[in-house]
Write a structure and sequence with these properties.
The protein is mostly helical and 426 residues long. 79% of the residues lie in helices and 0% in strands. The chain is built from 15 helices and no strands. The chain is flat.
């Protein structure tokens, strides 16, 4: 057991670790009691109490580190306790700050988006879909896939599909019901009587629903990170283990090359936050957690491109179509958007297929031009492959494909504005 009172570096590390958690907690503390938070922020006495509390919390962290002592155990606690809690707090911060930032930049449309965002997050359907996806993610850890050594890849593919499908399902349902009901129920007229035009109404509704979908995707990614780690711990097959891994990954465990590459960038950043000493394993553990998070967030962003497109299509169609027709059309767009590139490739490889193959090929090319190429957002190309894909090369691909999603989303919303402009609300 270390003498933590006589080690200033250990005390400083404890204060830094406690301060990081406190800073991450400030947004939701302000949301709980806005008036009390503002008055406390202006009070020198409250500031003094805050500094004293952080010093006491840092001393408590330093005492616990000296009491625990074991570097491997501290690394595990830093990963699954400290890093996990910090990650969750950052998601809550984004949950609270996104609508406020949008309202500050775009007051009228942001107010519509904020109302739609709150309405979506309060719906039982939001938490039902998120809870069902969470249960399926953890269920996929225990399912035998019989893939002869690639169970982890299969489970990872299923996990990212669920992270994408749950927000898509909720976003399409929410857009189809919320926008259509406000138009049909004549409540949109009340908004239009205020200084809110149709463009601000439709785009604000879309952004509010999309923010709720983003929160769901981030929460499911937070669930997926330990699930993937659990799958790697319980899968004893060694297929891509790196003997040069500096963080002690056993050679009989499955290693994810993307997370291993992220460790070389993210972990040193966390190590620099605390001075060298007994607290360094806690920072390393937090860095390992966020290494997994960074690698998995790229897959989440890739899949979220589908969410932006399909919710935009559902929002545009909701200005004219009923709920049932809108959902059916979105399902057709989803399936044809995935099948069209496959149909085009198959018909091009078929020689002398006759009139039938030519007609199928023509329809496939037509759908491939008009509909979004949703197959580009599939994570399977990055997961199911013989050679590992470099993380930062994959990041460039994700940014490019997400840019394509933003372009198609803009086109869909523009069409929706044209359809909404001539809609009689009276």
């Amino acid at each position: 057991m270390l003498n933590w009172l006589s080690d200033p570096k250990l005390l400083l590390a404890g204060v830094v670790l406690a301060t990081l958690q406190f800073v991450a907690a400030l947004p939701w503390l302000a949301a709980i009691d806005p008036k009390g938070f503002r008055s406390a922020a202006k009070s020198p006495t409250a500031l003094g109490y805050t500094i004293g509390g952080l010093l006491l919390a840092g001393a408590g962290v330093a005492w616990f580190i000296s009491y625990k002592g074991d570097p491997s155990g501290l690394q595990v606690l830093g990963r699954y306790l400290y890093g996990n809690a910090l990650h969750f707090q950052l998601i809550i911060d984004l949950f609270l700050l996104m609508p406020l930032a949008l309202t500050a930049v775009w007051p009228k449309g942001g107010a519509v988006a904020y109302a739609a965002f709150r309405e979506c997050c309060r719906q039982p359907m939001f938490w039902l879909i998120a809870g069902g996806a969470t249960a399926l993610i953890w269920l996929s850890v225990s399912i035998p896939y019989f893939t002869f050594g690639d169970d982890y890849k299969m489970m990872k593919q299923i996990g990212f599909d669920l992270v994408m499908l749950a927000p898509v399902l909720f976003g399409v349902l929410a857009a189809s019901t919320s926008i259509s009901e406000e138009i049909e129920g004549r409540t949109a007229i009340t908004l239009m009587s205020k200084p809110v035009n149709r463009r601000q109404f439709l785009i604000g509704k879309y952004l509010g629903i999309l923010m709720a979908c983003l929160v769901m995707a981030l929460l499911l990614t937070w669930v997926l990170t330990p699930a993937l780690r659990a799958m790697r711990e319980f899968d004893p097959i060694n297929n891509t283990a790196d003997p040069q891994d500096p963080y002690g990954v056993p050679t009989d465990k499955v290693v994810d090359p993307m997370t291993l590459e992220a460790q070389r960038t993210v972990v040193p950043i966390f190590e620099k936050l605390v001075p060298a000493g007994p607290a360094r394993p806690v920072a390393q553990g937090a860095g390992l957690w966020f290494s997994d998070t960074v690698a998995h967030s790229l897959g989440t962003l890739l899949g979220f491109g589908q969410v932006t497109i399909l919710v935009a299509i559902a929002s545009a169609l909701a200005t004219r179509l009923s709920f049932v027709v809108n959902v059916v059309v979105c399902l057709m767009v989803y399936f044809l958007g995935h099948l069209a590139p496959v149909i085009v490739q198959a018909t091009q490889q078929t020689q002398g297929g006759g009139v039938g193959v030519g007609l199928v090929g023509f329809l496939g090319q037509l759908f491939n031009v008009l509909l979004p190429s949703l197959e580009s957002f599939n994570m399977s190309r990055a997961i199911i492959r013989e050679s590992p894909l470099p993380l930062w090369e994959f990041a460039g691909y994700v940014v490019t494909v997400f840019g394509y999603a933003l372009i198609y989303t803009t086109i869909a919303l523009f069409v929706g504005l044209l359809l909404f402009e001539d809609r009689d609300l009276a």
